[in-house]
Amino acid sequence: MAKQALILIDIQNDYFPQGKWPLDGVEAAADKAAQVLKAFRQAGDAVIHVRHEFTSDDAPFFTPGSEGAHLHPKALNEGSEPVVLKHFVNAFRETNLRTLLEQRAITELVVVGSMSHMCIDAVVRAAADLGYKVTVIHDACATRDLEFNGKVIPAAQVHDAYMASLEFAYAGVVSADEYLKAQAAAA
């Protein structure tokens, strides 16, 4: 039987309204992530948290040791759930994430968190390239407006474009409700 793990990416204080780099829809996304987290805990499945810290004190957000770099209360680790500290966009780069997955014989990943267009995109593509079957819970991910060539691209469009891209070749992309219903039906 396949073993799955929930990977919570960068659900950290700086991404919330009082933080240094707030994301569009982050509260609702974190609520959905918390629902999935609760289901994983109840099922006894593996949960791994990832948090980002830049290595410089002059970073725009997630500065080392700051309150903004801490995990948000909606997604705190409990018990033996590991927290992977990363300094790059890709959570596999120069971290122990792959080792943690291998130690648990994980073959399938469920990914939630932030930002859709950066760290979610990077970890999903890397995980698929490493041979994991990946599911992204799209409404448990958040991002922000981007600017390109003098145009502002609204966060909802950024998010949808990245989810469509991931679904095309790297992952199953479903809502939290769809995922939780499928898990309940399989139990």
Description of the molecule:
The chain has helices at 26-43, 97-103, 116-129, 155-169, 176-186; strands spanning 4-9, 46-52, 83-86, 108-114, 133-142, 146-148, 151-153, 172-174. 35% of the residues lie in helices and 23% in strands. Helix 3 runs parallel beside helix 4. The chain is of the alpha/beta class and 187 residues long. The protein has a single domain (4-186), classed as Rossmann fold. The model has no long low-confidence stretch (mean pLDDT 97). The chain has five helices and eight strands. It holds the Pfam family Isochorismatase. This is Isochorismatase. It comes from Pseudomonas fildesensis. One of its GO terms (molecular function) is hydrolase activity.
Keywords:
alpha/beta, Rossmann fold, two-stranded antiparallel ribbon, 23% strand
